[in-house]
Amino acid sequence: MKTKVALVTGAGQGIGRAIALRLAKDGFAVAVTDYNATTAEQVAAEINGAGGKALALQLNVASREQVFAAVEQTREKLGGFDVIVNNAGIAPSTPIDEITEEVIDNVYNINVKGVIWGIQAAVKAFKAQGQGGKIINACSQAGHVGNPELAVYSSSKFAVRGLTQTAARDLAPAGITVNAYCPGIVKTPMWEEIDRQISSAAGKAPGYGTQEFAKRITLGRLSEPEDVAACVAYLASPDSDYMTGQSLLIDGGMVFN
C-alpha cells in the first residue's frame, strides 16, 4: 500500500510535535512545518531516527504563498498528499480594554487566515491528484465557550469552528472531509505563557491562571499533548471517514456539548 502523507503546521513543539510523532507512528510520512526552522528539523530528525519518514519545512502560516509552497514541496518530496493538520496558533491574553489592532491582526493572520490558506492549499493538492483527502483544523474549547481574558483568541477559534462547518459542506462533493479538534488546557509552552499573562494580570504568582482554569476540568488533570494527538490520529484515519463538519472536544470535560 502507498504510504499516506500528512503535513502538520506548528509542529516544532507542544501539540503539533505530538501530532507529528503520532501520525508518523501510525505510518504516515510527515511534513513537519514550523515558524522555527530549528525545532521543525529536530522533530523531523526524531521521526527519521525512529525509522519513520519526515521532512522539515520552515513555514509562516500567515503567508498564503508560503503555505501553498509548503504543500507543493510536501507532495513532491514525500510522494503525495492526503492530510493537512492546520495546527499552528497563538493565544495572547487580551483583556477587553487592552485589545489593539496589532493584536487582532496578529492572532487572526495566524489562527484564522492560516487555516484558510491551509484549506485552500490542501484542496488544490487533492484535486491535482484526482482524489479526496482530510482537512483537520485546530479549534479549542475556547471556540465553544468564550474564555475570560482571551477575547481575541476565543473569537478566532469560534471562526475556525465556522470555517470547518462551511468547508465541510462545500468540499464534501470532492470527497474531502473537514473536521476540527478542540483541546482544553494542555501542558505546552503556549499554555505556560497564557498562565504567566493571566497570573500576572491578576497580581498572582505563576500557576494561578492554571489553577483557576483547572477547576473546570471534570477529569481533574491537565491534558498532555499526546491526549490531543490521539484525537487527531482518529480524524486522520479511515475510522473517521463518515465524519465531517465536526469540532471534537478533547478537553477532559471542560465543555459538554
Automatic annotation (TrEMBL):
EC number: 1.1.1.304
PROSITE patterns: ADH_SHORT (PS00061)
Pfam family, one: adh_short
One example of a Gene Ontology biological process annotation: acetoin catabolic process
Enzyme class: oxidoreductase
Record field: catalytic activity: (S)-acetoin + NAD(+) = diacetyl + NADH + H(+)
UniProt feature coiled coil, ranges: none
InterPro entries named among the record's database cross-references: 23BDH (IPR014007), NAD(P)-bd_dom_sf (IPR036291), Sc_DH/Rdtase_CS (IPR020904), SDR (IPR050259), SDR_fam (IPR002347)
A GO MF label: diacetyl reductase ((S)-acetoin forming) (NAD+) activity
Sorted UniProt keywords: NAD, Oxidoreductase
Domain of life: Bacteria
Residues the record marks as active site: 153 (proton acceptor)
Chain sites annotated for binding NAD(+): 13-15, 34, 87, 153, 157, 183-188
Similarity comment text for this entry: Belongs to the short-chain dehydrogenases/reductases (SDR) family.
UniProt xrefs under PANTHER family: 3-OXOACYL-(ACYL-CARRIER-PROTEIN) REDUCTASE (PTHR42879), 3-OXOACYL-[ACYL-CARRIER-PROTEIN] REDUCTASE FABG (PTHR42879:SF2)
Name the record gives this protein: diacetyl reductase [(S)-acetoin forming]
Organism whose genome encodes this protein: Duffyella gerundensis
Gene designation: budC
